[in-house]
Design a protein that fits this description.
mainly alpha, Tetracycline Repressor, domain 2, elongated, Arc Repressor Mutant, subunit A, homodimer, 2 domains, DNA-binding
Chain lengths: 205, 205
DNA sequence: CATTGTAGTGAACAAAAGGTCACTTGTCAA
DNA sequence: TTGACAAGTGACCTTTTGTTCACTACAATG
């Protein structure tokens, strides 16, 4: 019950910050949500700002581990259909995983105030996905699944619309199902435009 | 100097809210930024929340007038080159117009807290642009400039990446120039993919 | 000129905020 | 058993916050 409290505080902070933002969050309420009293928080974090920084440390580390490392790169799919299903798996995870949703919301709310949040927001919302899919598309071009083109441009053109709909889900959760359908439709439209239509009998070498 | 103050307060509020958010903004500082003392604000708005709501009213009205009305629809360009330059004109406006930038920031910061902000955010960031460009693409298909396809899907695929880069500029203004270049590159890539390459001698009827 | 209403001031207030500290409690090691 | 330490409490403090109000200055109107 001891060491655990520090972790519970961090998770409660993620929760409140993601709803009310840093300024809108107050320590009393945060402590109460854990059955603590506010001075109890200060046994684990020396100030509200220290708590915020610890949370950011965590988010940055988590991002690095989860999205930044080579082992978590999605495998290059070997059919366009598998490419779509891979996308949908990733999308479903990122939309429904509570911690990831809250992380996105916090970054959205604090991106103009905190420099590290700002940087992480750009990774989360833009460059991270683009880099990842640049590799995927490069691989798919090598396999002859999609036509040769600038893979970074394709990755940007592919991930940004999906990212926009993920933000929509964060903002209006009741539109989640529709958004997921739109993402799938967009995905299929995308492979239809960029997919290499192999002539009959032709095969990838 | 009389009626004017109410307006100046509204603009100062837009400014502070866009930087510090609603919770982070305090009336004293806001008044001071206008050379007033805090009680002066209350002569024009009965509470902080009333001020916030007045600002939202304004933003909603402005959006309706600026982006919602038929007369402000961009004309359907009659060449792909003009399509790109039209896009760039719009992008430059939306990135450099202070009031529009601040509006986007406020909506970003308050989208999870205020229902009207939430709705306006979706319009600003997603559906508004998509609707507008659906019409543009429909017109361009009619003119034979781009190949026939689902115009709404094209509009979504076109505007979402641009929107993502506009958000990037709001977050990291020092990347504005690079972002604008990327938008233009994306734009050209887009028309290359979807543009109808008319055979020699062929013309739109 | 008298009056009336509007814009603005400054002092005051209650509530809420972040933070401190002396104290209790429970656990574990010597 | 005892000493030490980490975890948690409750009372207290200071600062900040939104809001009110009696008052002044002044322009417009009759």
């Amino acid at each position: 019950m001891a060491k655990d409290t520090k972790e519970r505080i961090l998770m409660a902070a993620l929760d409140m910050f993601s709803i009310k933002g840093y300024e809108g969050t107050n320590i009393r309420e945060l402590a109460a949500s854990l059955g603590l009293v506010k001075s109890g928080i200060y046994k684990h974090y020396e100030s509200k700002e220290a708590l915020w920084n610890a949370l950011l440390d965590r988010m940055i580390a988590y991002y690095g581990k989860r999205f930044g490392s080579a082992e978590h790169l999605p495998p290059v799919p070997d059919s366009l259909e598998k490419f779509v299903s891979m996308t949908m798996r990733m999308v479903n995870l990122t939309i429904h995983d509570d911690q990831i949703v809250k992380t996105r919301k916090v970054l959205t709310l604090e991106q103009y105030r905190d420099e590290r949040a700002r940087d992480l927001a750009t990774k989360h919302f833009l460059t991270g996905l683009t880099k990842m899919f640049t590799l995927v598309f490069t691989g798919m071009m090598d396999k002859g699944l999609i036509r040769r083109d600038d893979p970074a441009m394709l990755a940007f053109a592919y991930t940004a619309p999906i990212s926009a709909l993920i933000h929509l889900c964060d903002r209006e959760p009741e539109k989640t199902e529709e958004a997921i359908r739109t993402i799938e439709a967009f995905s299929r439209h995308f492979i239809q435009v960029y997919g290499e239509t192999l002539s009959f009998g032709e095969s990838k070498h």
